[in-house]
Amino acid sequence: MNRERSFQLLRTAVSLLIALAAAYVIIFLISDTPLEAIRIFTVGPFDSKRHLGNIVEAAIPLIFSGLAMAVVFQASLFNLGAEGIYYISGAVVSLVAIFYSMPAGIHPLVIVILGGVIGAAVMAIPGVLRAKFNASELVTSLMLNNILLGVGLWILTNFMRDPETGNQISYKFAETALLPKIVPGTRIHFGLIIALACVLLTYLFLYRTKWGYEIRMTGINRDFARYSGINTAKVIIMAHLVSGVLAGMGGAVETIGLHQRFEWTALPGYGFDGAMIAMMGGNHPLGVVLSALFVAYLRVGADMVARLSDVPTEMVSILQALIILLVSAERFLHTYRQKWIEKGVKHGRAA
């Protein structure tokens, strides 16, 4: 591991420790029983099989969204379209989960593949606009999120809303469409296996294929990549398509993994979370898994402390904002970065 990457890992670890320290300070300031609240927040998520399962359940959609963002970030693109893709893929695959009958093993497979296709088709829009017209993918993806929310709500209201319920939710999914649970006593479902398979495939794609190399080179220096013969327009579109597939599969897996109806009436937030997960993980697939588990741990701890003490769950939003600020701040620990790299160069020469 080179010293630049090791420093980034160190900086991320320091950022997380600062965020946790801030959480403890907040708890001390607002709680009447701060020590008990800190105990619940810190060790509560590990005190039972069910709570450990909650961490893994919460991490599954974060892994998909983190991978989706990591791919476009590797190409130095800042696309937040995974948020809308999660919603629209969940809405469309719900139609298949409700109204189509298939064998138990085939039904979820078709739904997950369909989610990936929907994600690729949607993400192609900002990708083509960026590659062909140099339109900001950040702006186009954010605008697209609102459009996809409106389309998804229209599908829910007009085609699958259950009139016998008082809420705006769909009919129940067919039993054959649901992903099976794989760990007794928890809600951990087969989506975990799919997510880990996507982690492996994303790693192989980014670091073991020509296309992944082109994405990374384009991200490092687009002009140099173009002068080297890489078709950067094609790379931009390809990165968007791969990102869309991952986000669309994530939306489908979350929909049929933890729910029996389509219940989202607003954007679920997973796409925006993916940007934080990818940055924390250094845009590396393995880093995405570790970051997703850490964020899931924070959320489970925050939920437990909100239910069992007097600390509100909004605390986790403060932690996430602080983590993003520290991880994304180029000047954070910049002086130490220079010394760290220079020390490595001197040692290399001495050797």
Automatic annotation (TrEMBL):
Matching CDD domains: TM_PBP1_transp_TpRbsC_like (cd06580)
Name used for this protein in its record: ABC transporter permease
Entry annotated with the keyword Cell membrane: yes
Signal peptide residue numbers: none
Keyword Transmembrane: yes
Coiled-coil residue windows: none
Main location: membrane
Keywords, alphabetical: Cell membrane, Membrane, Transmembrane, Transmembrane helix
Topology of the protein relative to the lipid bilayer: Multi-pass membrane protein
Transmembrane parts of this sequence: 12-31, 51-73, 85-103, 109-129, 138-156, 188-207, 286-309
Pfam family, any one: BPD_transp_2
Organism: Pseudoflavonifractor hominis
Protein location: Cell membrane
